[in-house]
Amino acid sequence: MKIAFFTLTFFLFGCQSNDSTNKKTEQLDKTSQTGEQLYTTHCISCHGVDGKLGASGASDLSKSRLSAKQVSAILSNGRNGMPAMKLLLDTDENMDSVINYVIQLR
């Protein structure tokens, strides 16, 4: 009898949806994207797959010698025709992932 009560209680309360848990899960999913995925989503149209495209006046990332701090400033504030990407990238972890990926394109 006790086992049946415990099992029923577990299923009734353990399986309820929790909005804060769902929001945290969605946030973790978003932040777990790799730098390459984020680059593909937000940067590839101007910088190209290998960073060399240069569409719309975009810099050739394969030739860039900017430091990670300088790349971060450009992503945060934009530069020339490139808009600020900080809001699109959403988190510091995503920013760091994109910075690391951009540096790997060299």
Keywords:
106 residues; 7 helices; mainly alpha; 61% helix; globular; Cytochrome Bc1 Complex, Chain D, domain 2
Low-pLDDT regions: 5-10, 12-17
Order of helices and strands: HHHHHHH
Class of the domain at 34-106 in CATH?
A: Mainly Alpha
Helix/strand class? mainly alpha
- Mean pLDDT, all residues: 81
**Fourth CATH level, the homologous superfamily of the domain at 34-106:** Cytochrome c-like domain
Brief account:
The protein is mainly α and 106 residues long. The chain has a domain at 34-106: Cytochrome Bc1 Complex, Chain D, domain 2 (Orthogonal Bundle). 61% of the residues lie in helices and 0% in strands.
Structure description:
The chain is an all-alpha fold. It has helices at residues 2-14, 19-31, 35-42, 44-47, 68-77, 86-89, 92-104. 13% of the residues are buried. The N and C termini lie far apart (67 Å).
Q: Which helices and strands occur, and which strands form pairs?
A:
Blueprint: H1 2-14, H2 19-31, H3 35-42, H4 44-47, H5 68-77, H6 86-89, H7 92-104
Helix pairs in contact: 3-7, 5-7
